Amino acid sequence: MPKKERIELAAVIDIGSSELRLKSAQFSKTRIKYLESLIYPLALGRDTFNTGKIGFDKVDKACEIIRNFMMIIHEYGITNIRVVATTAVREATNTDYFLDQVKIKTGLNIIVMDDMEEKLYIYKLLTRLLKDDVKNSALMVHIGSGNIGLSAMESGRIQFTQNIKVGSLRISELFGDIQEYSSEFYVVLEEYLHSFTDMLETVIPENNKHFVVSGTEITGASELIGASKKGVFHMIPKDKFLEFYQEIKLKTTERAAEDYRISAEKAEVLFPAMCIFHNLLRFTQAEKIIASEVTLSDAILYEMLCPQEFAAINKDFGKNTLLSAMALAKKCDAMESHYKQVENFAVKIFDKMKKLHGLGPREKLLLQTAAILHDIGKFINLSHHYRHSYDMITGSDITGLNQLETEIVANLAMYHAHRAPGPLDNNYTKLDLSTRVLVSKLTAILRIADALDRGHTQKFSEIDVRITDEELMVIISTNENIDLEQWSFKDKGAFFEEVFGIKAVIRQKKVM
Q1: Taking each helix axis from N to C terminus, what angle separates 385-394 and 361-373, rounded to the nearest 10 degrees?
Q2: So what's the pLDDT on residue 1?
């Protein structure tokens, strides 16, 4: 009797700013097959962007929609379910009440994703689907209801990432009154967007050959323009897009809805989205726009149904994180020879301590990123440079890191030279318990790694690390005087012993 084929099932409910979405799929043999793809309009973002909080009438409606989605999910026998929320829920002042009511009325826990995390899921799946020639030179743009995400790809790697708190629905709500009475609303919006994007001229790599975009508005517009389609990508010729833009910018919302036979809600955000794409197209040499149908739900379903493949993407994406960190370090004139030395030492110590710290590759990546960026605060001022490093890291978009991971890296930079983490530090105490423990472990390793090149002179390039039940021994081979390193290592080693319960010591081996 032939072995019965095992079919994996999963579903994602995405609570967006303008609609709730359900996608369910099954994995069979080598491909993902979608079962349901449903959308229910509900403008939660309208409440958040206008009043700062979600009205309870919308909360009740959201719960009703979710319950209906769950009935469909259960009909397929799906138990692997993930519920996520983005900008509208994340930015609402009553987020906790919203999450609590959904939990009570539906029994579901919602994962509230930060802005960078949402974009990263989409970028990761896109990097798998895009052709190599596109990935060699492309500006990628994702427009959400409340935010824009930009990433520049060079030679298959993302070294630049920027998030801007401007999105199609947020703009629509912000300029709703002006749009009603201004006959040249497009002028207002174009000038407004330039105030955000003009500064990008100095940071976006030049000569991007491709323009890859995603977001519900652009896929809808591609159908109106009559673009060709290849798989999940719509190919929109630049000249046709520009013609469409010149046409739509002169239409009122009501006229656009009537002419394009779309709902008033879609018409309201269509022009703001097209204006954003038009503004950013100037940073490329692209003769066509590659519009992707990939959504957050698609990427999460891929992770749920193909965990090993997605883990491989994650691992490879870590290289983008290190490149992004090095680009920021270079911008801040950080000493490359020093931070590379510290990174090398930190990795060797981390790898030797696997059984003691119990951490994995993701935490190792955060340690490496912190080692690269720990001194960037010196660009501002040598005095209290660790504090400046913290502020600069938290104020930067580092490719591949979500908001919490960026906060962790910033804390490591704070404590690499400063006193150890303490109960009076708000940046440390605001973290939950498990994150504080993680910060302490990685800080302890980074501090002694930095101590090994205390004078920034690279007296030795390699170390041998040995560990016993009582001590971590770092053996260095050099004939140079290492009194400074010994002193610094002993000072930084006190926190290491407090965290791990073993001493950290240096042993010098003379070179014959």
Answers
A1: 120
A2: 43
